[in-house]
Amino acid sequence: MKILLFGAGGLLGSYLSREWSGHELTALTHGEANITDAARLDELFAQPWDAVINAAAICDFDACEKDPAGSGRINRDAPLDLARRCAAANALFVQYSSDYVFAGDTDRLLTEADIPLPLSVYGNQKADLEKLLPGLCPRSLILRVSWLYGLGGKTFMSRMPDLLSTESTLRTAAGKKGCCLYAADGAFWTRRLVEAGHTGLFNLVNTGQTSWENFARTTLAEMTSLGLAPTVRSIEEVPYEQLGPGWCKRPRYSCLDTKKLAGAFPPGPRPWPEALGAYLAEWKSVAASRTV
Q1: Contact 198, 141 (CB under 8 A)
Q2: Is the backbone of residue 181 left (phi > 0), alpha (psi -120 to 50) or beta?
């Protein structure tokens, strides 16, 4: 397959760039291809592609709230343009969505059939994509991810091993429940779905519910068992409602059901503690190479 990947310099994009062995992959960073640059896209779409994967996005929650129009050009308008181009080229279009499309006012696993009710600018941008993309490009694959983490990431979960290795006290938001996704697993399942020709909406997370405070405590315990000598001696849990007005726009509960993905590829994604262990092994390997 001939694959075009946008956003190769980001967290998920960096793992996607390493995933496509056996395929002809063109992986482009933001500097190499801005998805709002029509002339650059004209140039790229002058050649045929079997699949186009868009991992480019503004994921900074506060930045989206402060600049809805600017972030919307990246998070909504540009992906819709890519979808139109893919439809005209008969290419599969792969786009990522978010658990932030939900309001978080339920305590049951959320499926692909549940109606989005976003609270934030970012959530609304992703909900628009879920609604509009299938009509623009019938051969579209929308993957709803949540609490993404991995090497090089700026997310709280991505930075967790470094924080636990350098701080004496870790302060974390508490009271939110969701699912997390190791970026390596996100890239793996993206490839499986694309290779099999799947379209439509899929929840894509590691299985099992967690919270930021539980993720932090589990990471601390796992690092200790691996002999990684974390420096943190206490974890301070702060109710997320107390962290500022923006936090009320994040869903309180956004756990995603992965039965649809498991039905396509039994048994589906691995549990999040197992994925966390794989991440820590990767982090340990890179950390060891830095000290050599």
Answers
A1: yes
A2: beta
Contact of 167 with 232, CB cutoff 8 Å: yes
d(CA 38, CA 222): 47
Distance of CA 73 to the CA centre of its chain: 19
Structure-block tokens of residue 56: 């480019």
By the 8 A CB rule, do 230 and 224 touch?
A: yes
Q: Where on the phi/psi map is residue 105: left (φ > 0), alpha (ψ -120 to 50), or beta?
A: alpha
CB 118 within 8 A of CB 126: yes
pLDDT of residue 122: 95
DSSP 145: E
Residue 185 near residue 275, CB atoms below 8 Å: yes
CA–CA separation, 43 vs 244, rounded Å?
44
Cis before residue 138, ω within 30 degrees of 0? no
Residues 179, 251: contact at Cβ < 8 Å?
A: no
Q: What's the first-to-final CA gap in the chain, in angstroms?
A: 39
Q: List, in sequence order, every residue forming a beta bridge with 201; answer none if it has no partner.
A: 142
Query: At 169, which helix (H) or strand (E)?
Result: strand 169-174
DSSP letters along 34-59, please?
-TT-HHHHHHHTTS--SEEEE-----
- Residues 230 and 165: beta-carbon distance below 8 Å: yes
Q: Which residue has the tokens 């900074």?
A: 60
Which residues of the chain register pLDDT less than 50?
292
Q: Note whether 51 and 199 are within 8 A (CB).
A: no
Residues 6+ apart with CB under 8 A from 152: 11, 14, 158
Measured distance CA(257)–CA(259) in Å, rounded: 6
Token pair for residue 289? 């190479």
Lookup: tokens for 11? 């967290």
The type of residue at 53 is: I
Segment holding 259, helix H or strand E: helix 259-264
